[in-house]
Every structure is written in structure tokens, then in C-alpha cells.
Automatic annotation (TrEMBL):
Keywords: Hydrolase. One of its GO terms (molecular function) is acyl-CoA hydrolase activity. It comes from Pseudonocardia asaccharolytica DSM 44247 = NBRC 16224. Pfam families: 4HBT. This is Thioesterase domain-containing protein.
């Protein structure tokens, strides 16, 4: 791995994607990554809907958390979520194409703060704020 920040972000994201059984099982797709930023996608399928026929909020949280993970690990140092909250703004229907975009807002020492916007097309359906902590003893994704 070189010292180019974009190369580090891409290499780390590829390793995380290979190891992320939960995201893969849910249908999360990595769309792009850069230092402190990431975009992931999900097509809402039958397995994602709740008893109202709408995308279950847990999957929206999982999608936002995946974007947070790629963005916060994009520097090549292992980071994990230390907390997060989400606001569900609009219902999401079966078949919707979701994109979650994470943007770093602050990074101080080992702590980070990220905002993630989830859209279905041009419509914002949820806003997520995540906090991360770099974990020195945790091996980085290989």
C-alpha cells in the first residue's frame, strides 16, 4: 500500500468489503470511498421490508453505519462506531434505490464525527450522525 491518501482509502475499503459478511448479506454495495468520505448503496428487496411493507429502519441504520465504517477507516487506521443516532424522515418503499453518503465533520485525536445522508433518488429519507473511535490494538483490515 502506498502513501497516497486515495490509494489507502481504496485499499482499506476493499479489505473491509471482503470481510463484511453482515453488509454483504444485507445487500450493501460500496459505491466509492475517499479520505473521510464514502458512499454505499442498497436496493430495497422483500427481505428489507417490515409489516407495513416499508423498508425496516434497522436496514436504514445498517446502511448508514456501513457508510460510516468505510469513511472512518479510510485513513488506514482501524476505527469503530462509539455511538450513533438516526432520524427517519420519509418512508422507503420496496424497490427503492438507496444511497448513503458519509462525510467527516471532525476528527480530533482518536475520535471522529460523521454525518450520513440517506437518499432514495433525490429525496432525503434519513439523516444519521455517527461517532467513532480509533482502536490502536485492533488490526486494520488486511
Amino acid at each position: 500500500m502506498g502513501e497516497d491518501p486515495d490509494e489507502i482509502a481504496a485499499h482499506t475499503a476493499a479489505a473491509m468489503e471482503r470481510a463484511d459478511a453482515a453488509g454483504r448479506g444485507a445487500g450493501v454495495r460500496l459505491l466509492d470511498v475517499a479520505p473521510g468520505r464514502a458512499r454505499v448503496g442498497l436496493t430495497v428487496a422483500d427481505r428489507h421490508v417490515n409489516g407495513h411493507g416499508l423498508c425496516h429502519g434497522g436496514y436504514l441504520f445498517l446502511l448508514a453505519d456501513a457508510a460510516l465504517a468505510y469513511a472512518s477507516n479510510s485513513y488506514g487506521t482501524s476505527a469503530v462506531a462509539s455511538g450513533a443516532d438516526i432520524a427517519f424522515l420519509r418512508p422507503v418503499s420496496l424497490g427503492a434505490e438507496l444511497v448513503a453518503e458519509a462525510v467527516e465533520r471532525a476528527k480530533t485525536g482518536r475520535s471522529g464525527l460523521y454525518d450520513v445522508t440517506i437518499r432514495a433518488g433525490a429525496e432525503v429519507v434519513a439523516e444519521f450522525r455517527g461517532r467513532t473511535r480509533q482502536v490502536p490494538g485492533l488490526p486494520p483490515p488486511a
